[in-house]
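Its record is set out here:
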Amino acid sequence: MSAFDAVISALAPKAADELEGVQVLDGWDREKDLADLVLVLGFAPTPGTPAGTVRRDEDADGFGTVETVTIACTAASWDGDLDYAGKGTQVADLLTRLRDLLAAESRADRRLGGTVLRAYLGTASQWYREVDERGATVQCDFAVVAEVHGP
């Protein structure tokens, strides 16, 4: 299993268990019926778009090989009305809960079940507001970054 898949496999079930009221998806399934509040780990918005990157550093500061995995993610909220402010609050709250989950998991198990050295939310994010067939949508694209011991 690649480092990219290992990080998602470690994080997705924890997020699904801990983030009540949130549909957690491993990758973007354009055919799936989506809940009002969605978190996608490994988000590729269009076919052919990468869902993340892996950078490999040999003998990184005496740790041996370290792979830095950056997973593209998105959080989105829609429920058929036009309340942008309320949806923005839902998405911001979801990101806060995800950050807190990563922090708690890192404190409880610094390696997320032995998979990673550390994991955190990336600092860059992009926010979108639009109206589609389901009503107003607020979406935030962001990254989860993890450092993994390589083979």
User: Anything to note?
Assistant: Residues 3-149 form a domain with the Alpha-Beta Plaits fold (CATH 3.30.70.1700).
